[in-house]
Protein: Malonate decarboxylase subunit alpha
Amino acid sequence: MTKRSWTTHRDAKNAKLEKVAPMMDGKFVETENAKELLEDLIAPGDKVVLEGDNQKQASFLSKVLASVNPQKIHDLHMIMSSVSRPEHLDIFETGIASKLDFSFAGPQSTRISQMIADGTMNVGDIHTYLELYARLYVDLIPNVVLVAADKVDHDGNLYTGANTEETPVIVESAAFKDGIVIVQANQIVDKVPRVDIPGDWVDVVVQADQPYQLEPLFTRDPQNITELQILMGMMAIRGIYEKHNVQTVNHGVGFNTAAIELLLPTYGEQLGLKGKIVPNWEVNPTPTLIPAIESGWVKTIHSFGGEVGMENYIAHRPDIFFVGKDGTMRSNRAFGQMAGQYALDMFVGSTLQIDKYGNSSTVTNGRLSGFGGAPNMGSNPTGRRHSTPAWQSLRPDNDPLGKGQKLVVQMVETFGSNKKPVFVDHLDAEEVRKEAKLANVPIMIYSEDTTHIVTEEGIAYLYKTDSMAERQAAIEAIAGVTPVGLRSNPKQLADLRARGIVALPEDLDVHRNEAKRSLLAAQTMDDLVSWSDGLYNPPAKFRSWS
Amino acid sequence: MTKRSWTTHRDAKNAKLEKVAPMMDGKFVETENAKELLEDLIAPGDKVVLEGDNQKQASFLSKVLASVNPQKIHDLHMIMSSVSRPEHLDIFETGIASKLDFSFAGPQSTRISQMIADGTMNVGDIHTYLELYARLYVDLIPNVVLVAADKVDHDGNLYTGANTEETPVIVESAAFKDGIVIVQANQIVDKVPRVDIPGDWVDVVVQADQPYQLEPLFTRDPQNITELQILMGMMAIRGIYEKHNVQTVNHGVGFNTAAIELLLPTYGEQLGLKGKIVPNWEVNPTPTLIPAIESGWVKTIHSFGGEVGMENYIAHRPDIFFVGKDGTMRSNRAFGQMAGQYALDMFVGSTLQIDKYGNSSTVTNGRLSGFGGAPNMGSNPTGRRHSTPAWQSLRPDNDPLGKGQKLVVQMVETFGSNKKPVFVDHLDAEEVRKEAKLANVPIMIYSEDTTHIVTEEGIAYLYKTDSMAERQAAIEAIAGVTPVGLRSNPKQLADLRARGIVALPEDLDVHRNEAKRSLLAAQTMDDLVSWSDGLYNPPAKFRSWS
Structure:
C-alpha cells in the first residue's frame, strides 16, 4: 500500500500558483491578465467565495469571472453572501457555475427564482450571514476566494477601511486551509493607512479597472417618512423601548426605524428618556442617527459595514464609532453579527408578509430574496446566559428555571406599499418552497422568536400569550382591515387590552394628532448635514441641492 | 455652551501613552518596567480584558497586574474568558479589581463561590465564550486588553501560532475603539513566521519573564477509558451517529467522546460506516482523534485552540487541519464558536448533573464553574436556515412550517466519579443561584435544547417526546438506580421502547460483552504516538516511557 499524501490541497495550490508565475510580479498581476489568471487559478468544480455584502461588491473580479472560458472553468460551487449584480447570475447561465449557497439576493431575487425553476441553478441553501461564514470553516471550505480591498501595499497588506465588512472572515477560511486568496485593489500604494488583513494571508493582488461597487443602502431620506411611520415610532418608543428599558439595539433598514432614530431627540426627550435608553448600538452608520448622536443619545456604535457619505463624520466622532489609529472606521460583518445575536436587548426589523401565527418572510411569489442578517439577529439565542433588564423583563413568571428572552420586534404597516395585505393566512413562502424544492419553508423570522409586532393599529405583545390561539388573536387585533385583521372582534380586543397583550395608541398615551412630520429631528437630507456640522456628505442621488 | 469633545477616549489613551513614553523603545518596554507600565496605562475603574482561554493564559501580565499598587489601580472591571490562575482572584482580594464578567472558572470555581458569598467580588454575569466576545463590541468595550503572543517582531506584528485562540477578537475590540493593547511576548524576533495580528493594532509589547502558561487540557489517556464508556460509545455510534447520518460534529472534553473517537476505526469500520459519517469537525486537536484521522475517517478539523504535543503532527497533516503558509496551525476561538453554533449537525457534551426535566449544569454546590463554550454549541440556533440530513431528521412530522434541529447530546454515567447520582430532582445550581444572587439559575444546557441523553442504560430520544411528562419518563428510563431512575417502571419502559423514544443496547444491536478495551483503536498514549508515525509528542505528564 502506498502512503497517502496529506498535502493534496497544498500541492494543488502550488501547482496552480506555479502556472501563473510567469505573469506575476511578486504577488501582483496586471489588470489585463486577470482573466487568464482566474482561468489558471480556478479549477472546475471548485468552491469559490465571491465577496459581496450588502454594500460592497468585488465587482471587478465578478466581471472577470463572468468572462472566463466555460470550457476551462465550469460547474463552480459559488458561495456568496449577496447575489447583487447581473454577472453573479450570468455565470450560471454560461455553465461557469452550477451550484449556489447564499444569504441575500435583493436585486436579483426574481431572476434567481426563475433560474431555479428552469434548472439553470442548483441552490444549496439560503443562510443568514453568520451561518454562511460558519460553514466556510466546516463543510464549505473554499478553494478560492475573490475579495476587494481599498488599498494594498507592495507586501500585499490590505487596507479595507470603513468597508471591512466580510473580507477578514472570508480570507481567513482560505488562507489557513491552502485555499487561494485573490484580491482586487482600488489602489496599490507604498504604505497602507493601516493593515486590516496581513499580506501573509494574500496570494494574488490585481489592480481593478475601477473602484469596487459600493452602495449607500442604509441611507433613508427623512423627507419620505410618513406620519403613519411617525405614529408607529412613537408607539414603539413608549410601548417597547421605554417599557422594557432597552439599552442595546439593532435597527433593520427602513423608514420605520429611521423615524424612531429621528424621534429620540424630540419625542424621546419630551418623555424624559434621554440617558435612560439605547446608548449602545450594533448598526450600520445610518445618517438618520446623526441627530441622536449629536444630542447625546447614542454612546457607541459598532458596524457591520460602512455607509457612503458618512466617512468624514465618523472620523470626527471616534468616541462613538469603531475607528482605527489611522482615523477611519473599521467595520466587521462577522463580529457585528456575533454582537447582533448575543449582545443585544432588541432587534427591530420589518418584513413583507406575516402569517396568522406570526411567522414572517420577505420571500414572496417569484422572489427568492434570502434574508441577510435578519434570521440571526431576529432570533433568540438560547445559548445566552447574561441577563439585562430588558431581556429579563420577558422572563416567564411561572417557571422557576426560566430565563429572559431577546426582544424581536417586527414593525409593519398592515398593507404594504403594493397595497397588498402584510398579514396573510399563508405565506407566499410556502408556495416558493415547493417551486424551489427547498427542504423547509423559507421563513425569515419564526413566530416563536417574535416577541412584539407593531402596526399603525397598535402593539401586540406576543411574548405574553399563553397559547397559539391567543397569539393569533393578538395578531388579529393589530392587523387592521386585512383578512386576518377582520377576524378580530371588540370583545376579544377589550380582553387582550385589559390583559396587556395588546396596546392601542391611547393605551400608551400616544396621540395620533401629534404624529406629525414636524416632530422629526431632521426632515430633510439638508437637516442631517446641518446636524452633522457639515461633516456628513450625502451621495449625489440624495442631494436636492447643488 | 462649550462644544463637547468627541475624542475623550483617544485623549485619555494618548495621555496614558505619553506618561509611559520615557520607558518605551518604540512599542517595547523592558520586562522589569512592566509593573510601572500597568500602573500608568490602567486607570481605576477601567474595563480590562485579561486573556485566558481554556489552555493559554497571559500569565506574565496577570502576575504583574496582581503586583500593582492598589492605591493607584483599584476597582477594575475584569472581563475574562477563563478564571484559571490564583492571581486572577487575588486581585479582587487586594481591591485592584471589584467586578468580574467571565465564562469559565474550572480550577478556581470553589474560591469564586466563596468570594461572592463574602462580598469580595461582584459578578456581572456568566457567559458562553461567544457571548462574552460579543459584548466587547457593544456594552463591555474595554479600556485596556492584556494578551499573549508567541513571537513579536520589531513593528509589533504578532505571531500566535497554533494557539491563536481568542487573541484576535479581544485585540480588535480595543484597537479600534481607542483602547490600549498590551502584549506579553514569549520571544521578540526580527521576523515572525507569519503575521496573525498586524502590528498596527498593538500599542505596547513586553518580553515576558517566561513563556505563557499553556495546558494540555484536551489530552485524554486511552488507558483511562472504561468499558462502560466503550459501551456508551458503541450505543452513540449506532443509535445517534449512524441513525441520524451525522456529518459535522463537536466533541466536548472527556473520556466518553474519546472512546467514540477511538471506536470509529474499529467498531465504526465493522459497521461499514467509514466514509459515511463525521468527516468534518470543529474541535480542538485532541490526540485521541489521531487513529480516526490516520485511517481516513476525518477529512477536516477546525480548532478553537491548539493542544500541547500535537504541533508537529498537525504540521504534517495540512489536508486535515487549518495550517498557515508558515506550516503551523492557526486556531480561532471566536470563529470556532461561530462554526460550533451554526455549522454543526451535532454537539456531544457531558455534565455533572441533569435534573428530571433534562436541564443540565456543571455548577454544583460551592462551585461556580461557568460553562465555556457549551451553552453556545449545545443550543439550537434558531437563526439557522440551511438543512442537512441529520438536522432535518429531527423535524417534527406534524408541522408544515417546521424545521430541523441541532442534535445536542449529553453523555453521562448515571453516577459520577464522586459516587453521587448525576440525575437529580433539583440541580444544585438552583441553590447556587440564591447564594450568588444570580438573575437566573445557572443552567449549562436547557432541556429544550437537549435532544438526546446517553447513559450506560440506554439512549433517551428526548426530541421525540410530546410533553414534559413524557420527557421526564424518557429520562427516568435511562437514569439507572438514581432516585430519578427508580421512578421508572417496566410498563412505561416497554411503551417508550416500542415507540422509539428510548433504546436499550439490545434495541441497537449493541452487545455488552463486546464493549471491551481491546475494541479501542489505541489503548495507551504509546499507541497514539505509533498511529501518528512518531509525530505526536505527548506532554511529560502523559508519558509513562522515557
